[in-house]
Amino acid sequence: MSSPGRLRDGEAAGWSTTPHAWVAWWAAALVVIFFLASASVWLAPPQSSVAAWWPASGVAVALALWTRRDRLPLTVLGIAVVTTLANVWGGRSWETAVGFGVANACEVVVVAWFYRGASAPPGFSRLPDLGRLVLAAAAGAGAAAVVAGVTVAGLDPSAFVTMRAVFASHAAAILIIVPMTMAHPPARGHAPRQELVVQSVVLALVVGAVFGTKGELPLAFAPMPVLVWGAARFGVRIAAAQLLLSGVAMSLLTTAGRGPFPFAVERLDYPPETVGTLLQAVLVASALVSLPVALLTDELAASLTRARTSAETLEGVMEAATQTAIITTDLVGNVTSFNAGAENLLGWTAADVVGHATPAWWHDADQLDLRSAEAGLEPGLRVLVEPLEGGSASDRRDWVWRTRAGEELIVSLRVSPRHDAEGRRIGWLGIAEDVTRNRRAEQVLRSALDREREAGQRLVELDRAKTDFIASVSHELRTPMTSVIGNLEMLLDDSLGATTPAQRLALQRTDRNARRLLMMLEELLLLSRVEDGTFDLRVRRTDLVEIVEQALHTLDVARGRSGVDVELHAPGEQVELDADAEQVERAVMNLVSNALKFTPAGGRVDIRVRDEGATVSVSVGDTGVGIAPEDVDRLFDRFYRAPSAVREAVPGTGLGLSIVRAIAERHHGSVTVDSRPGEGSTFTLRLPATQGDESTPA
Ligand code: ADP
Question: pTM of the predicted model, to two decimals?
Fold first, then answer.
């Protein structure tokens, strides 16, 4: 016996094959149906109006289920024609043959309608599939039985016997053949091959013993437990094959007049059709018992495989994590698993720990006690999982662990609950990483930063102390210095008696130095006041041109002495700005007096006042000695004087430019320099035109 075969997805008859391939399958299936039907008609029991079995219907249904929807009408027509021809060939009248052909076609349509899904090739792998198949088989066989019954006997009461026989033989054929042709899940995890051999032999022996002899009627069901054995141990594939093979064997033997049924029917004087009906009833019962068992077996095997695979994956992951400790415990903390990472980190093996230890073995006891007390808990491990009692999914904290060798580690530990399939909490999962190095590095970094901040504060304090010191020393020295200069003046103008020329020379030198000292004290005092902000700016609207003119006027004496040509370039109108005029004048004076000091006689100084919109500027350019590039950056430092100035004993304190810069910055302005040694320098003081709120000192 043959069937459309084990058709798989994609190679199926008419499902996704080329039309060519489909025609080949289709034709082959129809030929098979023709021969099966003919054989069944030939082998029908003597005097019986119908065949004892009808495997052709199983094959026809399988063909229809594997046929694409749009090709279904052609397939049904083919089945009707082939069945009719087989019946005629088997010796039946044309009328009966056509009736049986129609009956078969109706059956195929009904089963296809019940069982087919929307598109995919039909599968047979779960219990609901069996339910649908049983329903479809009953409906299809019922349809065939009604049509066949009416064909054979019209509305005669004897039609019932025909119907019963057709129903049983067709339903049995569908239930036994169709599962064989469906797509099954691959068999996994089933019993060993030897057992299959033994079971198959036992099945053959039982079928042979019961159906090959003049068997006793109650023994007709003897093959059933053996079929169930096969189903339970080897799954759907084997169960369907054994059903089919034993069904064929039982049918052939029964047709040959052997087995329990022909004998019983003869003895009890039942109609001849009863033989087939009883046989098919046994086959249906066998299918209904063994197929569910087989389906469940397959499902169980599949879910066992799935469970094993995921357990293996999990185990693999746990073992692969050699740097991460993964530890599970039960609800009270007894360790239930301990991975390679945990072994590496802690130094115990899983064998040492699992079933023997709790995490108290490696958790730092003092830390546990301390945190327990903080959380208001009894000392112990509870504190590890306490945050999870509130329902949060996990808790991550740093903990101190102690290895087997006594070494201290800092770990970042994430604890989460473990649940069973019903969602009940069964224990805890801890995943820990060694963060000792990171945490120590963090600590070192943090204390280095603290130290740096402290040092910075200290520097600021020192700087303030130094400024205070300079301010108070300058202040204290100014009064005695003024008095010294006053007395020197009296000595020099002979108010205290005549002086000799030598005394006079000494007094003049002393007076010069005393005045220099006083100037330095005043500049220092001014600088420290401007710098520490104790100096109040008196900001008002003023004219930069006027300020510069005033400064030049003050410097008139020096200008006269220097032999340097000084020229002011200013716009015809006022250049307004909000500033402390006195301070700006002081800054301009410093710049101009520097230009005069560092420009040899015959040179020139050009002073330019500009209104630049948002800012105003005054630049002082000279044709003097200029400044070496390496000195430029330090010019504005306190007491800095270029080596050439020191060498050539140009008078000065090194404070002038510091004061200019301090004044510029108090006004939110700037001072810049552009210089070339030997060619001259240009200093530019740039100030904002307005200072915002006039009332507040800047
Ligand atoms: P001082 O003029 O009292 O020495 P300053 O702070 O005003 O102090 O100037 C610092 C140094 O900058 C000077 O000693 C000098 O070397 C240099 N300098 C300032 N102005 C000029 C200039 N116009 N040309 C050349 N060098 C200058």
Answer: 0.52
